[in-house]
Amino acid sequence: MTYVIRDAVPADLPAIREIYNDAVLNTLAIWNEQTVDLDNRQQWFDARQAQGYPILVIVDHADVALGYASFGDWRPFEGFRHTVEHSVYVHPEQRGKRLGPQLLAALIERAKVCNKHVMVAAIESGNAASIHVHKRLGFVTSGHMPQVGIKFGNWLDLTFMQLMLKPGALPPQERP
Ligand SMILES: CC(C)(COP(=O)(O)OP(=O)(O)OC[C@H]1O[C@@H](n2cnc3c(N)ncnc32)[C@H](O)[C@@H]1OP(=O)(O)O)[C@@H](O)C(=O)NCCC(=O)NCCS
């Protein structure tokens, strides 16, 4: 099977919503228990577009999105403007085919194009697949926060991993 990674368009939002809502209902990857409607995903899409940040989808021969990845600002203060936090999700029936790592590798390249310096992943500490994929792509663990979340009646630990996109780069002297 040949897969293609491309920028998402509004027609991908129903598939993205399905993948997102599955993660809400059936995983500890998203710490929400409320599913979202299409309007919610459209607003998210518009916000990413307005910021010039990518949403990438990986599609099959029928151009159906099987997974997606995106990043947003890590924290809403101007001093964090060179750091982004990303997410990557693969449809439950498509996991185990290395689509996630392909998406993440492509997203890393886009973060470099956006002149970002650091990518941050905030991962539920029991998510061995995600931690493995991030390590494979060069991320290192930079923090572990016990019991900062709750879902399905359990406390959740958060593992932070980060990737320096341009190691050794001097801080840009631009003003925000
Ligand atoms: C995490 C996720 C993106 C990974 O994408 P994927 O396409 O399913 O990735 P794969 O299962 O093909 O795994 C890629 C690698 O992880 C390894 N892996 C898979 N499951 C694993 C597990 N439970 N423990 C350790 N390694 C695991 C695979 O062996 C493979 O390693 P390799 O390339 O070194 O052989 C995907 O499973 C997913 O969408 N999960 C639900 C949402 C989620 O957790 N998103 C991440 C939030 S931080």
Automatic annotation (TrEMBL):
Catalytic activity, as annotated: L-methionine sulfone + acetyl-CoA = N-acetyl-L-methionine sulfone + CoA + H(+); L-methionine sulfoximine + acetyl-CoA = N-acetyl-L-methionine sulfoximine + CoA + H(+)
InterPro entries hit by this protein: Acyl_CoA_acyltransferase, GNAT_dom
UniProt keyword annotation of Metal-binding present: no
Pfam families linked: Acetyltransf_1 (PF00583)
Keywords from the UniProt entry: Acyltransferase, Transferase
Domain (N-acetyltransferase) ranges: 3-166
Source organism, top-level taxon: Bacteria
Protein name per Swiss-Prot or TrEMBL: L-methionine sulfoximine/L-methionine sulfone acetyltransferase
